[in-house]
Amino acid sequence: IVPDTGVGAAKPRPAVRSERWAKVSDADRDLAFSAAKLDAAQRSLRSVSPVSLTARLTVGDILSAGDVGQNMELWFISQPVSTVDFRDDLQAEVVLTVSPNEAFDTFRGFALKQKEVVLPPAADKGWDRVKDEFKDKMSIPVGRGSIPDDPIGFAPRRRMGLRGTRDVNPVDVPAWVGKRMDAEAVGMAARGRLMAARAAEASAEKKLRVQIEALAWAGGKTLGDAAEKNPRIANAISKALHMARIAKTEYREDGSAKVELYLDLDQLWVELRGLE
Fold it and tell me: How far is it, in rounded angstroms, from Cα 48 to Cα 108?
């Protein structure tokens, strides 16, 4: 584990560089590093999504309004990286240096600028309660990223602003690329509403998996058919599901929670491109 101040400083010292990482190009190492920072941002934001803003709104609701979620992700990944660990399993693990106070203040600033949802003014004392809960719930931004399975590159990286792109024959690109998939589920738990939300999230993720496995794939097969015969495809699906985001969390009077998840299928394509 080494300290880091940017991508250029993210190279492991010779004493900790494994033989596997020695064979990885600088460009692919940087891609893994960038993916790990994005994963850290998304994990931390998901941890605060259930925080209630009003009787009917949560932080997750506002993160899905306008560009708030995207702006918060960009803000997180722009923060300093305290450590980076290039693991033997070819995953980069990073820890972002993010203060919960700064994260909340940044979130509130973006939230008040969006026009889709009406919120209390910045001076409203109710924000103090939200800030306390936000700070209490926010997880440390730790994330992991893998090197691309296709080291040459693929079209979605151009839209993501990442390096290592090349053009892809449009015929080879599935019709579902560029679309969004969503699922919702209700969860119950005896240990409180947050556990109920986690149960609902897990159920919604299973529903997303069923939808993903039904998607068309090469040779007239579905992704589920291909995954049964190719463990790399099954692993790619699991990686993509890990990037599903919470669109909304609803806590109900009976103690249950309803969670809505969504996944941009470009992220699934990123994981699948070039596997077969």
Answer: 13
What are the backbone dihedrals phi and psi of residue 143, each rounded to the nearest 5 degrees, phi first?
-145, 160
The label of the residue with tokens 């994005």 reads: 38
Which residues are bridge partners to 264 per DSSP? 180
Answering whether pTM is above 0.70, one says no
Averaged pLDDT, 62-86: 89
Q: Which residue has the higher pLDDT, 126 or 16?
A: 126
In degrees and rounded to multiples of 5, residue 7 shows phi and psi of -60, -40
Place of tokens 């560029």: 178
Measured distance CA(86)–CA(104) in Å, rounded:
30
Question: Considering all CA atoms of the chain, what is the largest pairwise distance in Å, rounded to the nearest integer?
Answer: 59
Closest among 80, 136, 77 to 104, alpha carbons compared = 136
SS3 state of residue 145: strand
Sheet containing strand 2-3, strands side by side: 2-3, 81-86, 91-96, 142-146
At position 199, the amino acid (one-letter code) is A
Taking residue 26's Cβ as centre, other Cβ atoms within 10 Å add up to 12
Tell me the two tokens of residue 199: 């149960």
3-class state of residue 52 by DSSP:
strand
For 208, phi and psi rounded to 5 degrees? -60, -40
